[in-house]
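Researcher: Let's do a round of design. I'm pasting the structure tokens now; please hold your answer until I've finished.
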């Protein structure tokens, strides 16, 4: 009779019979956990993407502490929306569109570097040595050709690096693109990114700001632990959402999602290697002393 593991998702149950090495490798892979906060943000982004084009399109700035899940949410939304195939009813030909484009902001505020980062997504030849005007013209043409409706810029706080003039130039370049094509901008960054909007009062008036805070020690956090436990390939239930485990995990992670993921991965790895096959209070305590050297931050 096949052993079942009701504490795990069905797709994870099949993984439990794999070797220790395979299970540990899985722990370090990127993963998507559709917790409520993430689902709500993706719903907002979906609504923004589907809105009709208008003269002053709405835009969004998503901010939060470093390593708190912002990029993971955005990449999941982008995975769902970066390309779309449309069949022409007359010619029966299939056309590919790019509703959303995701880039990481250049290291400093630089208009030309912004155009180059966006052009890279179209897999067409262009010369980085061309003038800003020529690169902008080519970019506008491609955005129209592929029906792009949203530009997503991760690490947008990078635009704070550079002179005030450079910051204004890159933000004005974005404003010009949105005005001409009537598309939305979504920026993702730390809380400092709000300062980017104040290079010009017009920028601030176009952006809604959504904050992704660290987690409180509450029912939502405990539900998050339930979701995590269902994807950790351990043969025995750990009951991570129990009061003692949840309190300890929150104390170590400071409610930071990335830090929580790190500690749970290390605990699960230890449980696999030791043969315990569950994360106990003692397992969690093993990693409490690793906070300073593992890059885990405690938020007071």
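Researcher: That's everything. Go ahead.
Model: Designed sequence:
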């Amino acid at each position: 009779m096949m052993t079942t593991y009701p504490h795990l998702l069905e797709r994870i149950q099949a993984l439990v019979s794999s070797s220790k090495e395979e299970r540990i490798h899985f722990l370090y892979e990127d993963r998507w956990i559709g917790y409520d906060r993430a689902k709500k943000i993706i719903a907002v982004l979906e609504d923004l993407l589907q809105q009709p084009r208008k003269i002053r399109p709405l835009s969004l700035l998503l901010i939060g502490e470093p390593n708190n899940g912002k990029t993971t949410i955005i990449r999941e939304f982008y995975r769902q929306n970066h390309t779309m195939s449309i069949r022409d009813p007359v010619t029966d030909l299939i056309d590919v569109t790019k509703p959303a484009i995701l880039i990481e902001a250049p290291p400093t505020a630089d208009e030309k570097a912004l155009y180059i980062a966006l052009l890279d997504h179209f897999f067409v030849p262009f010369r980085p040595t061309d003038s800003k005007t020529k690169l902008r013209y080519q970019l506008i043409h491609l955005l129209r050709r592929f029906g792009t409706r949203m530009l997503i810029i991760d690490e947008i706080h990078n635009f704070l690096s550079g002179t005030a003039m450079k910051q204004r130039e890159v933000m004005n370049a974005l404003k010009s693109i949105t005005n001409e094509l009537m598309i939305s901008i979504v920026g993702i960054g730390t809380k400092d990114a709000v300062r980017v909007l104040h290079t010009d009062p017009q920028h601030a008036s176009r952006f809604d700001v959504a904050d992704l805070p660290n987690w409180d020690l509450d029912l939502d956090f405990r539900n998050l632990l339930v979701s995590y436990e269902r994807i950790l390939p351990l043969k025995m239930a750990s009951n991570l959402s129990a009061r003692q485990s949840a309190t300890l995990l929150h104390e170590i992670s400071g409610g930071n999602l990335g830090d929580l993921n790190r500690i749970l991965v290390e605990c699960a790895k230890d449980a696999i290697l030791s043969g315990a096959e569950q994360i106990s209070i003692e397992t969690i305590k093993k990693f409490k002393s690793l906070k300073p050297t593992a890059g885990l931050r405690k938020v007071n």
